[in-house]
Amino acid sequence: MDDLIVLKNLRKVYKMGDEKIIALNSIDLNIKRNEFVCLLGTSGSGKSTLLNMMAGLEKPTKGEIIINGHHLEKMNETQLTKFRQLNIGFVFQSYNLIPTLSAMENVSLGLTFKGVPKAKRDKMAKEMLENVGLGNRLHHKPSEMSGGQQQRVSIARAFVGKPKIVFADEPTGNLDTKTTFEVMDLITGMARENNQTLIIVTHDNEISSYAHRVVYIRDGNIEKITHNQIITEGEKTK
Amino acid sequence: MSNIDLIRMGIKNLWRRKLRTFLTVLGVIIGTSSIVVMLSLGFGLTQGFQDQISQWGDLTTINVYQRWVDPSMPSKDQVKLDDNAVAAFKAIPHVIAVSPTIETYGTVINGRYIAQVPIKGIDPDVMAEFGFEVAEGRLLNNSDELTVVFGGGMQHNFWDPKARVWREPKINLMKDRMSLTLNPNYGYEQPGQKTPNYKEYKIKTAGVLVEGNWETDYGIYMPIKVVQQLIKDKEKAENQKPQKGNNNESQYQRINVKVDDMKNVQDVQETIKNMGHEAYSLNDQLESMKQTAGIIQAVLGGIGAISLLVAAIGITNTMVMSIYERTKEIGVMKVIGASLKDIKRLFLFEAALIGLLGGILGICFSYLLSFIINHFGSSFLGNFFGTGGESKISIIPIWLIFAAMAFSALIGIISGYYPARRAMNLSALEAIRTE
Questions:
Q1: How many Å apart are CA A93 and CA A73, to the nearest integer?
Q2: Do residues B235 and B316 both lie within one domain?
Q3: Nearest CA distance, A82 vs chain B (angstrom)
């Protein structure tokens, strides 16, 4: 397995007036293709900043982000958008579905921007929603669904374009324990099925047990990295 | 993002805030229709002036006279209005007909009624080209001798010199037997005054012109060769020797030049003037009236433009508000793959659609207003503008419809440009964090 994501000496400093806040000090990390990595840390540790930078949503102050051979820190906004469109799926803590669109429309929105014709993207969106168990909720608005269902729509949206990498920022933060496991099983299952790289940010140790590798982040630095025995879905839900 | 998806998404976004979209569109409707109606008043005014002037005569005819030259000056500068001039005028581009004209005065006698009229000699071949139209009978032709075509208003110009009160005479210009004399005092001869022995010619009527043209209503038309003969007879009766120069057979008092289109009249007139003649057309008046109408129209249009400006600000306001509401949505769209261009296009399209929709509805509304003005306002407004009750006060040309639609859409795009840029430049990460 080769390295899909390479971070070199990554540093991010926020300026708040005269005060400088170091969000990330100096991060060096390699993530392999098809790997499932969990970034674990307390709030304010810098784990979300790290995720946003890998997704091209934030620029580093210093250092390099190389994904699949492309230097993200050198790209402009337009190139980054294109890059995200083709390579990256995103799952948020607060789902971030568009409230006026139905489940199917939300899932197919990304495909719309890619220029996929309506008939094709509707079919893809429908299949994806059936895969996440929402075949009977295709035309419901987000407000008519539970948190777990909304998050599954959000997962469908992230995976529908078959991106190389899926980022998830506290995907289970707003869910109860039972739903958390359902959602985690779903995400990991899908990533494995499609040979995708999955990077999840969390502060929950339970979730980190799903990952191949857990990266502990503290005060903007990598504290330690642990390797997990891979646990199959079936065993976990029991 | 394909265009069809862009349109679908844009319409959906506007539809989801129906009331606000409607109010913004209403602003554009008012703005567009105020400009269109104001401009239509200007067009109505121009048309009114034109109608008025065309009553005075033909707008595409140029009257050419001999330029007056100081007799003490050497006369070699004098350009003659002769057959050479006729040929020269015919050669000017856009000229479709040239007719020399001579004019004299005479009296038409119809039983006990008489009419004193100008007798106009004209080339029978070009009468139709000069726009003469008969109400009855026919125009002159080349074989006519003592045959006349009456002006449209001649019916009302006969009177009985012996009657004390004028009463509309009962005459039939087509059928009555009439005669013509060039005696200027016919019916008013003073006892004892010696009158030259003027001839009295029996005349036949070829036709009567359509009434309503101030230039042709009053007078009778005869072939120019015949009129020249009449003048010779008159001079003979008065024992005058033919005057040198002016009434010489080969020279004319006036040459009428017919131009193919009103817009070419000015050029042809200039050309003729440069040849050393004096030229006059009703176009001279029309030009100055058009300028006046143009100024009035500009002022009216300016007033209308203010309301469209307000509407444009309304569009900008609506779109900015929309961005505030949709900040999070914009952020999400950016993260899941909307390009900067997509975002910009979406907002521009929404703004343009508001403009276009307002433009289309505004034109419908303008038509309604225009109809109401023409229908109910002509009685008093018509008098105010001095165009008379006949012509329309408000005219909307076809091109104005398309211009107004294109312009309102353009206003929409301009108004939407700032909001669209703003949406485009929103930071995705910050946008997504807004609640």
A1: 25
A2: no
A3: 7
Regarding whether B36 and B67 lie in a shared domain, the answer is no
Question: Is B413 a domain residue?
Answer: yes
A98: chain B residues, CB-CB within 8 Å: 329, 332-333
Determine the Cα–Cα distance for residues B264 and B261; give it in Å rounded to an integer: 6
Q: Is residue B283 part of a domain?
A: no
pTM: 0.71
Contact predicate B5/B256, CB 8 Å: no
With H, G, I as helix, E, B as strand and everything else as coil, classify residue B425: coil
Domains and CATH numbers, chain A: 32-61+75-237 (3.40.50.300)
- Vertex A192, ends A190 and A193: CA angle to 5°? 65
Instruction: Identify the domain containing residue B158 by its residue range.
Output: 61-260
Q: Please report, in tens digits, the pLDDT of each residue of chain B (435 residues total).
A: 888 999 999 999 999 889 999 999 999 999 999 999 999 988 888 888 888 777 777 778 888 887 766 666 655 556 777 888 888 888 888 888 888 888 888 889 888 888 888 998 888 888 888 888 888 888 888 888 888 999 888 888 888 888 777 777 888 888 888 888 888 777 777 777 677 778 888 898 889 988 877 778 888 999 988 888 888 888 888 876 655 444 445 678 888 888 888 888 888 888 888 888 888 888 787 788 888 888 988 998 899 889 889 999 999 999 999 998 889 999 999 888 888 899 999 999 999 999 999 999 999 999 999 988 888 776 655 555 554 445 678 889 999 999 999 999 999 999 999 999 999 988 888 888 887
- Decide: helix, strand or coil at residue A15: strand
The answer on B341 and B311 residing in a single domain is yes
Q: Is residue B410 part of a domain?
A: yes
Residues 6+ apart with CB under 8 A from A130: none
A81:B5 CB<8 A: no
Nearest residue of B to residue A96 by CA position? B332
Q: Of B260, B276, B298, which marks where a domain is finished?
A: B260
ipTM, 2 decimals? Answer: 0.87
Contact A81/B338, CB-based, under 8 Å?
A: yes
B343 contact A CB<8A: no
| Strand B220-223 to B113-122 pairing | parallel
Instruction: Give B338's contacts in chain A (Cβ within 8 Å).
Output: 81, 113
Considering only CB atoms, B337 lies closest to which of A58, A100, A113, namely A113
Task: Give the best residue of A54, A76, A77, A92 to mutate against chain B (max B CB count within 10 A).
Answer: A77
Considering only CB atoms, which chain A residues are within 8 Å of B327? Answer: none
CA angle centred on B185, ends B184 and B186, rounded to 5°: 100
Residues linked to residue B205 through DSSP beta bridges, in sequence order: B148
User: Chain A interface residues facing chain B, Cβ-Cβ under 8 Å?
Assistant: 52, 55, 57-58, 77-78, 81-82, 84-85, 90, 92, 96-98, 100, 109-110, 112-115, 117-118, 157, 161
| Domains identified in chain B, total number | 2
B338 to chain A: closest CA residue: A113
